[in-house]
Amino acid sequence: MPRRYHPALVTLHWLLALFLIGALIAGRFILTPQDNADPAKLISFTLHMGLGLTILALMLVRLGVRLGTAHPPRVQTGKALPDRVAPLTHWALYAVAIAMSVSGIVMSRQTGLPDAVFGDGPMPADFDDVPARAVHGVLSMLLMALIALHVAAALWHQFIRRDGLMARMWFGPR
Fold first, then answer.
1. What is the pLDDT of residue 37?
2. Alpha-carbon gap, residue 75 to 154, rounded angstroms
3. Rounded to whole angstroms, how far apart are CA atoms 172 and 113?
4. 174 with 8: CB under 8 angstroms?
5. What is the mean pLDDT of residues 43-56?
6. Structural domains counted in the chain
7. What was the pLDDT predicted at 73?
């Protein structure tokens, strides 16, 4: 059994961490406050949608690599709650990130946004009445909470338990 995760999985983990955090920050602090009539919003949407599609593709690849490669055994802390919550959190990160990308695709299709962003169609006046927008927003909050929990757990392992867990998700001999 390897001591570290497969290098492809490590690369995808850190790349997706950057992309997910970037997309969440852009969605919350750039896209949401921008008026839809602002021409700069089209540029923001183009980047956000491209990043969302990239995240979806990489998440699916990462899931395939995760399921198809040997990985280190699950860490046992001796504490029932963290030992049960950790695997659920990891799988929830996959599920919510993929669902968020899908909800973004559904929302963009329902509003004709691809025509505005990639063609010459009109920009929707707003997204307030689009059910997929509400789902996308709830999923973004859930994803932020899961990422915060994941980072807090990693820091707990690194600085409180000092068990070397984070080294498993880095490069080196397997």
1. 86
2. 12
3. 44
4. no
5. 94
6. 1
7. 92
Q: Indicate whether 1 belongs to any domain.
A: no
pTM of the predicted protein model: 0.93
Domain that includes residue 49, residue range: 7-169
- Report in angstroms the alpha-carbon separations of 43 from 10, 40, 46, 55: 31, 5, 5, 18
- Is the dihedral angle over the CA atoms 80, 83, 87, 93 positive or is it negative? positive
* End-to-end Cα separation, the chain, in angstroms: 9
Nearest to 103 by CA among 65, 143, 74, 44: 143
pLDDT digits (tens, 9 = 90+) for 76-135: 899 999 999 999 999 999 999 999 999 999 999 999 998 888 888 888 888 888 999 999
- Phi–psi pair at 69, nearest 5 degrees: -125, 155
In a domain, 174, yes or no: no
Is there a contact between 20 and 143 (Cβ–Cβ < 8 Å)?
A: yes
Measure the CA–CA gap between 101 and 80, rounded to whole angstroms: 32
CA–CA gap between residue 95 and residue 101 (Å, rounded)? 10
Contact 2, 71 (CB under 8 A): yes
Structure tokens at 114: 């691809």
